[in-house]
Specification:
alpha/beta, D-Amino Acid Oxidase, Chain A, domain 2, 11 helices, 25% strand, globular, binds flavin-adenine dinucleotide
Length: 379
């Protein structure tokens, strides 16, 4: 049986950042992913400066590489459109990008390959996680067993590592189903500007039109699952209605051509209310596995990377103290709580507020729109 100090399950932003965070720790790390890279990830592909900051704090060299790869996909502005079509445009401070995840996630994993001694297993699915008194055993799809002192669950929205911690994941995680497509020939797309449209038929969610690379546009929709069910809304139908029939979009999509497939995936939001455990005996969870997506915007790349880095810090402490107990792991929970709890609580409250009183969204966007006009802002 192959033996490691740490096994990281999942090589998305959380897993790769965790492996990068361990680059000078002198630990024997395995990183496994069920897919082979570059691989597609269903996403709006938009992420901001915090992703850069995280890599930069691990090593300025990693931060510099991130800036270099993003040339050509830099976003400077975002437009928010209210249900009654009031529009406010904001300037995004610092670095912001819309690089497709196929490229971004592959870039992170390549950096792990180049800059660390991590043993990487692609096309390798973790199927069973067994926590024992002195180790964790990860069994893969072909029955291979890998042994380590700790396992880090970076395996996304349907985490198998999380299931080893509790068997009630579905009850603990609130889900936002999302659909994403790449189109060419969408009219009126500005190459440096994200568009977020809040619409009456997308409760607790939004429709996005984001510029991408190679002349493509990332178009998608995501909304709260419970709300969709409550209002009997078929999200896929709504998505097609918006592009093909809705008066404000139909002309823009008249000549649009779908590139690749229209795909759906879920956004897990569950951390903020503290019901989902994110650590345990010899286990830490990061990113989507920990339900760490930002509840108002659906931004999950930076929280995944940030939790991957926090996990790397915790792993180093565990090996230093030779302590892998659930109690010792609580320091990781504390870090995550401090970083995200208030922020997420506030944003969840605001989102609920808007949902209950949708006219507020119109008022707020109309107010800022008027204010910007008065200030004569030009972007
Ligand atoms: C429709 C949609 C739009 C989104 N838009 C945005 C956006 O614009 N900006 C943003 O910041 N966030 C966005 N998100 C959220 C973002 O995609 C996630 O939060 C982010 O990818 C989380 O990173 P992660 O590393 O935790 O998980 P993932 O990126 O999902 O990576 C998990 C990895 O684990 C692997 N894996 C899974 N199971 C196993 C297993 N059993 N064994 C081995 N490997 C396994 C997978 O192959 C995958 O590579 C969006 C999500 C969706 C669904």
């Amino acid at each position: 049986m192959q033996q490691f100090d740490v096994i990281i399950c999942g090589a998305g932003p959380a897993g790769s950042t965790c492996a990068l965070g361990l680059f000078e720790a002198g630990l024997n790390v395995a990183l496994l992913d069920k897919q082979s890279f570059p691989r597609e990830k269903i996403c709006g592909d938009a992420y901001g400066g915090y992703a850069y900051k995280i890599l930069n704090t691990i090593s300025p060299k990693f931060g510099a590489k991130l800036l270099a790869i993003n040339q050509g996909a830099i976003i400077k502005r975002a437009k928010f459109v209210s249900p009654k079509k009031h529009l406010v445009e904001i300037r995004l401070k610092g670095f912001f990008s819309s690089l497709p995840r196929t490229v971004f996630d592959n870039f992170l994993l390549q950096m792990v390959k180049e800059e660390t001694k991590t043993t990487i297993f692609e096309n390798t699915t973790a199927q069973k996680i067994e926590v024992q008194s002195d180790s964790v055993i990860v069994t893969t799809q072909d029955g291979t067993q890998l042994k380590a002192k700790m396992v880090i669950g970076c395996d996304g929205a349907h985490s198998i590592v999380q299931s080893a911690l509790t068997n009630t994941r579905e009850a603990l995680v609130e889900t936002f189903p999302g659909i994403r497509s790449y189109y060419k020939n969408v009219k009126g797309v500005e190459q440096d500007c994200l568009e977020i449209h809040f619409l009456p038929n997308i409760p607790k969610g939004y429709f996005w039109i984001f510029p991408s690379t190679d002349g493509l546009t990332n178009v998608g929709i995501a909304a709260n699952k419970k709300m969709l069910a409550k209002h009997n809304i078929n999200m896929r139908k709504e998505f097609h209605y918006l592009m093909n029939e809705a008066p404000q979009f139909k002309e823009r999509f008249a000549e649009a051509e779908l590139v690749g497939e229209e795909k759906g995936w879920s956004i897990p939001i569950g951390y903020f209310d503290g019901k989902l455990p994110i650590s345990g005996n010899r286990i830490l969870l990061c990113g989507d596995a920990a339900g760490l997506v930002e509840p108002a915007t659906g931004e999950g790349i930076a929280p995944a990377m940030s939790s991957g880095r926090f996990a790397a810090w915790q792993i180093k402490k565990c090996f230093k103290e030779n302590n892998f107990s659930a109690e010792f792991m609580k320091a990781y929970d504390k870090d995550i709580h401090k970083k995200y709890f208030r922020n997420y609580y506030f944003k969840t409250t605001i989102t609920n507020f808007y949902y209950k009183m949708p006219f507020l969204m119109d008022w707020v966007i109309a107010f800022f729109s008027g204010l910007h006009k008065l200030q004569g802002r030009k972007y």
